[in-house]
Amino acid sequence: MIRLNVFIEVKDNNRAELVEIIKELVAKSQKDKGCIAYDLFESATRPEVLMICETWTDAAVVAEHEKAAHFVTLIPKINALSKIKIEKFTF
Q1: What is the DSSP letter of 1?
Q2: How far is CA 20 from the centre of its chain?
Q3: Residues 24, 10: contact at Cβ < 8 Å?
Q4: How far apart are CA 15 and CA 57, in angstroms?
Q5: Reported CATH class of domain 2-90
Q6: C-alpha–C-alpha distance, residues 17 and 49, integer Å
Q7: Over the range 29-66, which residues count as b (16 or more CB within 10 Å of their CB) and which as e?
Q8: What is the pTM of this model?
Q9: Which helix (H) or strand (E) holds 38?
Q10: How far is it, in rounded angstroms, from Cα 81 to Cα 12?
Q11: What is the pLDDT of residues 55-69, one digit of tens each?
Q12: What pLDDT was estimated at residue 36?
C-alpha cells in the first residue's frame, strides 16, 4: 500500500475557494480504482494548513489517479492557491 500525506499551505485569503476545490478532488478521487482512503484534514492550530491523507493499493493505481481528468484539472488550481509538500510512505 501507498500513503500520501499532502500538506497544503494556503496562500493569501483564498482558503474558502481552496477548500471547495479540494472537496471536489476528494469526492472524485474516493471513487478512483484502488483508493482505500482519501480525506481532507484541517489543522487545529494553524488555520492556513490543510492536509489530504491518501491511501492506495499500489503505485500503479496512484499513476492512474494522477492521469484522471479530475486530478489534471483540479491540481493546477490547488497549486495556484497554495504551497504543497508531499510525504510518501510504502507499506
Answers
A1: -
A2: 12
A3: no
A4: 31
A5: alpha beta
A6: 14
A7: beebebbeebebeeeeeeebbbbbebbbeeeebbeebe
A8: 0.95
A9: strand 35-42
A10: 8
A11: 999 999 999 999 999
A12: 98
Q: pLDDT tens, 17-30?
A: 999 999 999 999 99
Cell, residue 49: 494548513
Indicate the residue type of 74: L
Cell 484539472: give the residue: 73
Beta bridge partners of 42: 50
Report pLDDT digits (tens) over 11-58: 888 999 999 999 999 999 999 999 999 999 999 999 999 999 999 999
Amino acid at 55: T
Residue 69 is which amino acid?
A: A
Is the distance from CB of 27 to CB of 10 less than 8 angstroms? no
Residue identified by cell 489517479 is: 65
Domain spans in the chain, listed from the N-terminal domain onward: 2-90
What the block records as the C-alpha cell of 83 is 504551497
